[in-house]
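I hope you will forgive my troubling you with a question about protein structure. The matter concerns a single protein, recorded as an amino acid sequence and a row of backbone structure tokens. Please examine both parts with care and let me know of anything in them that strikes you as inconsistent. Thank you for your consideration; the sequence and its tokens are set out here:
***
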Amino acid sequence: MIPVSQALKHVTENFSPLTPEQIPLNDCLGRVLAEDLASKVSHPPAAVSSMDGYAVLAADTSSAPVTLDLIGESQAGGGFSGVVKAGQTVRIFTGAPLPEGADAVVMQENTEATNGNIRILEGVPVGKFIRPAGMDFGAGDVLLKAGTVLNARHIGLAAAMNAPHLPVRRKPRVAILATGDEVVMPGQPMGPSQIVSSNSFLLSAFVRALGGEPVDLGIAGDTVEQLKSAIDGAMGCDLLITIGGASVGDYDLVGKVLGNAGLRQIFYKIAMRPGKPLLFGKLEGAFNGLAVLGMPGNPVSAGVCSVLFLKPAMAAMLGMADTGTELQSATLGQDLPENDQRQDYLRASLTLGGEGERVATPLGKQDSAMLARFSEAHCLIVRAPFAAAASTGDVVDILPLQGSCFSI
């Protein structure tokens, strides 16, 4: 068995960013920007009014009330082509360009129309109610960085930057293969010793949430022929995930079939609980170095391994600096005994204590087959190998499971 930190290093160093592709701006939500994005324009492109009112020379209003000659108007998308001189004013609307010569705007509530002229009731300083050119950003400003997961605000900003298409990372194609004669799809007839396949659905949903494209290879029975045929379906993908069949039982054939297909095993078994029998390697030859994660069959084991290893692998393929796996801290909600040689990931709830602190409390029995309890968990309490006994109120490390679209 290798430690979790070493396994994580092996995984992350074997993935690199996928090639970028240009896609229309309206299709970019949730995609990962592949290159820094600089604005093609300034915003606003020229000085504009932030109010409905009158464009003036501020000096003319210093002795307000004062009457000015109305010589035209400036509308958004239009503008006034003349020059505002002393004693003159131009009707202006919000977002309209400031006429040449004017250096301030008087809001219309502080004016009166009198016989075709405008009476200014209150004086204004230079720059009042004016948004200068480039106030928000200028042409050439880099406003969105490579590795950004694009949300609705980013899309709006990119549009304002005059970018109709964006360079984004290609979605990683992740092949998912469930294995075992005992596994059936939801809704299918079940034999007395069979169970419903849940891991492939959990993993497919997680891959989508992480910005990837799952490729369902179905369920392969416990024969070499079925496994080989199913694994061949992963050609052209960026990652193959197998579920179950990677242990040491007589019918656990995944490792054997992968080996025959050209697997270069990088590690097998990690000093962690749950998730010990995780396999990682690369399929050489016809598969062209396809990465393989052989997940344990127990659903919680597969889920925890996905949080720890699939998430950073996807982040690496998408060129993201933030893997979402940084540990946080919380106060322990109950006593815990000392730990053994494996790093422990306890499914736990998160509540607020009396002083607003986060309190993490393990959810009772921690069996790796208890998917309902895993779905209830807000976080994983992380306990290092050979950790000493911990008491209620101690500060512990946690790995959140909720709070973003990357939640499992």
